[in-house]
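We append the chain.
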Amino acid sequence: MRVLIAPDSFKGSLSSVEVAEALAEGWRRERPDDETMLAPLADGGEGTLEAIAATGSWKWEAVEASDPIGRPVTARWLRSADGTPAFDFPRAVVELASASGLSRLALDERDPFGASTRGTGEVIRAVLDAGVRRIVLGIGGSATTDGGRGILEALGARVRELPGGAFEIDLSGLDPRLADTELRIACDVTNPLLGERGAAATYGPQKGADPGDVEALDARLTSWADALEGATARRERGSAGAGAAGGTAFGLLSIGSWFRRVELVPGVDLVVEEIGLEEMLAEADLVITGEGRIDSQTAFGKTALGVARLAQAARVRCVAVGGGVEPEGVEALGRFGVTVVPVWEQPVLLAQAMAAGSAPLVECGARMARGWRGDGAFHRSPDVVCS
């Protein structure tokens, strides 16, 4: 039997690559003659590069760039491997978090006003220097609320912040190579740039902003939007997703006329496309997906639901593994005929679960393999815990 293992990460605990490898190890222990195909997934945030690289059709590149507060760091990106039949032109995958991510900063280093996306712009410039003109940019996990200013400056824009908080922006120096460049931005949120659902209000607190900071950040983003929309003759502040990554999406959408094409695409959809998940499903007899929590949010487009939809369309049996499982998540996946399997056979504390590493997932994979009947279902027995 061919078993496709396509989980998301268990955030704060294991990457999607580690989750997939652990489930496969457990399955193979009980059913060594089965073929396991690994397709770890991500949503555009941290782990996206590793998930895409796991297909083997990419090679790692590295560049010196700035972290969110200006320190030098080595940021990695992916380039499509030369000679791979699936690619008729070079492509790149860039992860904003690699240079400009919140994980780059200690808790006391978070700087909601000063943190910049400049390092991500430096990575994009390096991609252009390498001759690549088709770029996927994952923007999850940012430390910034600069509206994409740092990226634009790294690509040649000149920006002055005037007394009183207004901005002067000169875009005449933007890199001319952008005109030949297609940029697809992996974005899984629909927040506008400003207001109570905007970048500052929704994401500022996790980047170190207190309530007073949020108000000031929103005012500064308003001034930034006024200036950038004046310079580009594009009004993007209310676009769905413009507030993503502290307004990074807004900044890039605003200079969309300088690119050959710019578009926002759901992060999981982009990763599914890049790794060829639908083609892999066509060869599978069973697909196992999973994520840290299968709960009420699962119904709103989380990774497990996306895999469930594809599996149903391909008429492939689907199982979803959850570190935590709630009835709402079981119900959402059940509409697609998915069996939900808790990692743990008995309830455990979150801290204990996160500290346990991959061993419980190995055991879960083995438990599922033992319970597989071979006719597209599982035995309902104490040996396999299914909800």
User: Anything to note?
Assistant: The radius of gyration is 22 Å.
